[in-house]
Amino acid sequence: MKKERLLVLGKACPIISKKYEQLVCVAGITDSGEWRRIYPVPWDVFWKGKSTRFKKKTWIEYELESEKPSDRRPESRKIISKSIKELEDADFADIKNMLDKNLTSLDYLESKKQTEISLGVIKPEIMNFIAADNTHYLRLLKKRNQLTLFGNRAILLDLPKKEFRYRFNCFNLKDCSGHEMLCIDWELGELYRHCEIYRTEGKYPDEKTVLSKVKQKMLDEMIKKQELYFIVGTHNRWGTYMILSVVYPKKLDVF
Q1: How many whole angstroms separate alpha carbon 181 and alpha carbon 184?
Q2: What percent of the chain has pLDDT over 90?
């Protein structure tokens, strides 16, 4: 089997799949410069202590099940999830260089068919960050319960009651008309989940405080970042773009 090296730029919130149970969407750029979406990556890959566990902005290696696209999107590949091996962390300077070379606009991506391109990076000028009720919550809850009956999973996903969207302009497009897009970044999902735990433990008084804390991190702090990128990708079924990942430098990053 062919091996491939991938710089992980996107880890999306886990989803429920009837075929593969609980999955994480992982996307990035290979060492040969190709966009890649790898699949399936089970949620238990990221369990504490697992040798397959990896972070965003890290190089990983894995074996391809096939070198051909695994769905109609040209960047998608099926991998052997047990073969995932974490390598070294990437310097943000190298990440920035790679992203700047691939920078595009949402208008350009949406002008193309999903069979031509379905992953990309844009530099946003963030206008707002919006929380709303997760319209799919009850349906996902039902699906999770079905997995409990037939899949015998011991650990279940904490399903979010809220979903979050960014309003933004494409920074490198002067006549951008503005966009609003769902964000499914793993980091955002974990932030919301932990804030909800604090609320149930009495550390936060109410949901309003939870949403305020999330907005402070994902809007107020992000607006201040000198270098900020959205990794965007299409939904396999609907073809609509979503923000898979928000990529930005940490305090100690040099670029």
Answers
A1: 10
A2: 65
